[in-house]
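DUF2531 domain-containing protein (Erwinia persicina), 121 aa
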Amino acid sequence: MTTKLAFCLLLLLMTSVCRARDPFFVADLHRCRPAEDARVPWRLLGIIGREGRYHGWLLSPQGKLVRATTGEMLPDTAWRIASVEEEAITLASSLDCQPRLRLALKGRQDAENILAVADTD
């Protein structure tokens, strides 16, 4: 009788420890960083190329110049270059939890917007 009781107790303990994994339960709850930690301290310095074949130049927080091409990862980050356009680069998080970021060049369009506002006075 004691053997049966011990066996049942052991079986009960094993079923609670070795239960099947729920495939719909997200095990890694802290995989995404809070939005304030997800800032990209990279600066867009310029974009060269022609329609469909643009390349950007980014300055890393450590001061290194990095050539940016669509599909590449930014070194030492979780950001991938989603697209390089004529006046902007779009970054996507490889963690799929952060919104896309757009790094745009400042220049001609910003100057035109400032002049348009100045002319309305």
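Residues 16 and 67 are 53 Å apart (CA to CA). The radius of gyration is 26 Å. ok done for today
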